[in-house]
Write a structure and sequence with these properties.
Strand order of the largest sheet: 4-3-5
Radius of gyration: 17 Å
Structural class: alpha+beta
Oligomer: single chain
Order of helices and strands: HHHHEEHEEHEH
Distance between the termini: 43 Å
Number of strands: 5
Strand content: 15-25%
CATH topology of the largest domain: Arc Repressor Mutant, subunit A
CATH architecture of the largest domain: Orthogonal Bundle
CATH class of the largest domain: Mainly Alpha
Largest sheet: 3 strands, mixed
Helix content: 40-55%
Shape: globular
Length: 138
């Protein structure tokens, strides 16, 4: 199913599902946000560094991946089309990224606040910054 969605998005963008693109997609599937450095390291011996960067640029342009900005750094992850809608918590000390647990009340509240403002949202992303449990103890 994920490959069908991937192929469809690539085709709509005038691209095809090549072996390197499939490898990079597989390295991101069912994974949390990861830096480009980590992705390049994981792709080593399968796909060269330049291909990883070009592919991620294409994936980002077509909405296959999204960039999560953390200060002046960023991590990438597959979009909601592949991993389900979710939000993130970032530890400002160690840099780890955690998925915020699903909360239907939060989603309803976001939609309600937007509607009261006369805003028609097409999507949203919530990011919570703070200290993780390990860093809070230190």
């Amino acid at each position: 199913m994920h490959y069908d969605t991937l192929k469809s998005i690539l085709k709509a963008g005038g691209a095809s599902l090549t072996q390197p693109r499939k490898i990079i997609f597989d390295l991101m599937l069912n994974q949390g946000p990861q830096s480009m450095q980590v992705l390049v390291r994981r792709a080593k011996d399968k796909v060269d560094r330049a291909t990883v960067y070009r592919t991620i640029e294409l994936f980002e342009r077509l909405g296959i991946v999204r960039r999560l900005n953390i200060g002046w750094k960023y991590k990438i992850e597959l979009t909601d089309a592949f991993s389900g809608h979710h939000h993130h918590m970032y530890c400002t000390n160690c840099g780890r990224v955690f998925d915020l647990p699903d909360n239907p009340m939060l989603e309803t509240m976001i939609d309600t606040v937007a509607a009261k403002s006369g805003f028609s949202p097409r999507g949203h992303q919530l990011e919570v910054y703070g200290l993780c449990a390990n860093c809070s103890k230190a």
